[in-house]
């Protein structure tokens, strides 16, 4: 069982309008104020929705929609939330340092739009367990209504498509069944076979033109993007033999920035349109969102190795032959048989092999 620890809070200097005075009276802070919800080790930092709502300045019974953002480290995820949805206020931490400034998952309540904003740790950063980090981000996918994949790459990388496909598969095969079971146990507003979040790929380029995202171009299917963008994204997923069918829709927003600041207007309009759409996801209480996140975080909390068993060198430069009994790989390099060297087992490592009666791999010693 994951034990909640002390949460980390960060407030902004923004003074909200009088329309939210009644909300603030029930809480300890004035929104928007960010708080760390889950740390980098997947520990939930709040015991219940009431304490989370108090930290965010949001009553737990208030209905809202959740907006999450993911992407590689250093691509400006926190900056995007601050300037696109928080009026430029320093709600989420940003830094010019090489060190990662966002660890785990942070949340903030944006009262003017009624959004629950979720900021996440960047991919490809200096984390102790990248696999655990990816699992945490996939959990955020499951609870978000709209998710932004932020990239500042001049060209869309394959790792983005792989990550989105992984998120789609994880939602269908693991998260959706668990959320359906949770809904049956606790009467949460969740329908069977519900689609995943709407995903917006937000690409900011400097030296290349973004994909054609002219709204006047004809749309293709339910993807909400014009035919050129839809075809390009579909071809990239197909080239990896993957798909993102679990998402309710997949949008693309591209902007080329010659001189700062970044123009977030198209991104904001796209996200606001998706957030207003209630055909797939309706606003949910903060307590329901917290319960979903807590359930997924507790259910999928097994130990996970930090790295794969074999490095690239071990996988592709070491002889692929394996022992038929213990499955240990040969310790020599590839093509060593051409040099007249037999396979070398791991007995020199001191742990020996495993006895298999069907193979009769006994070793006899003189007494």
Short description:
The protein is α/β, with parallel strands linked by helices and 367 residues long. 30% of the residues lie in helices and 16% in strands. The radius of gyration is 25 Å and the shape is globular.
Helix content: 25-40%
CATH topology of the largest domain: Rossmann fold
- Low-confidence runs (pLDDT<50, min 5 residues)? 13-26, 214-224
Count every helix, treating DSSP H or I runs of 4 or more residues as helices.
Answer: 9
Total domain modules: 2
**Going by CATH, what is the homologous superfamily of the largest domain?**
P-loop containing nucleotide triphosphate hydrolases
What is the CATH class of the largest domain? Alpha Beta
What value does the Rg take, in angstroms?
Answer: 25 Å
CATH architecture of the largest domain: 3-Layer(aba) Sandwich
Mind explaining what this structure looks like?
- The protein has helices at residues 21-25, 49-56, 77-85, 130-143, 158-186, 227-239, 265-276, 286-299, 312-317, and strands spanning 9-11, 33-38, 63-71, 105-110, 115-120, 146-151, 196-205, 247-256, 284-285.
- The chain is an alpha/beta fold and 367 residues long.
- Strands 1, 2, 3, 4, 5, 6, 7, 8 and 9 form a 9-stranded mixed β-sheet that branches.
- The radius of gyration is 25 Å and the shape is globular.
- It comes from Dibothriocephalus latus (Fish tapeworm).
- GO terms for molecular function: 1-phosphatidylinositol binding; phosphatidylinositol-3,4,5-trisphosphate binding; phosphatidylinositol-3,4-bisphosphate binding; phosphatidylinositol-3-phosphate binding.
């Amino acid at each position: 069982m994951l034990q909640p620890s002390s949460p980390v809070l960060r407030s902004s200097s923004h003074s909200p309008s009088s329309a939210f005075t009644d909300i603030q009276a029930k809480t300890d802070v004035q929104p928007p104020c960010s708080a760390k919800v889950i740390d980098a080790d997947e520990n939930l930092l709040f015991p219940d929705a009431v304490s989370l709502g108090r930290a965010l300045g949001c009553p737990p019974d208030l209905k809202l929609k959740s907006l999450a953002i993911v992407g590689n480290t250093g691509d400006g995820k926190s900056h995007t939330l601050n300037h696109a949805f928080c009026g430029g206020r320093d709600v989420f931490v940003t830094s010019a340092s090489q060190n990662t400034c966002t660890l785990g998952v942070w949340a903030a309540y944006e009262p003017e739009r009624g959004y629950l904003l979720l900021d996440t740790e960047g991919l490809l950063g200096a984390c102790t367990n990248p696999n655990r980090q990816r699992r945490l981000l996939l959990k955020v996918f499951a609870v978000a209504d709209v998710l932004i994949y932020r990239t500042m790459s001049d060209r869309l990388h394959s790792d983005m498509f792989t990550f989105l496909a992984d998120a789609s598969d994880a939602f269908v095969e693991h998260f959706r069944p668990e959320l359906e079971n949770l809904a049956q146990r606790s009467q949460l507003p969740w329908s069977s076979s519900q689609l995943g979040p709407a995903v917006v790929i937000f690409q900011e380029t400097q030296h290349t033109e973004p994909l054609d995202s002219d709204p006047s171009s004809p749309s293709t299917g339910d993807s909400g993007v014009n035919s050129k963008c839809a075809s390009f994204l579909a071809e990239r997923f197909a080239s990896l033999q993957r798909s993102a069918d679990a998402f309710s829709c997949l949008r693309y927003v591209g902007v080329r920035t010659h001189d700062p600041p970044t123009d977030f207007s198209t991104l904001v309009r796209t996200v606001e349109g998706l957030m207003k759409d209630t055909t797939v996801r309706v606003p949910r209480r903060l307590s329901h969102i917290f319960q979903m996140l807590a359930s997924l975080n507790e259910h999928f909390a097994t130990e996970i190795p930090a790295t794969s068993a074999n490095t690239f060198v071990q996988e592709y430069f070491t002889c692929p032959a394996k022992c038929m009994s213990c499955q240990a790989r040969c310790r020599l390099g590839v093509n060593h048989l051409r040099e007249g060297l037999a396979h070398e087992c791991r007995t020199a490592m001191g742990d020996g092999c495993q006895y298999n009666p069907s193979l009769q791999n006994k070793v006899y010693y003189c007494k």
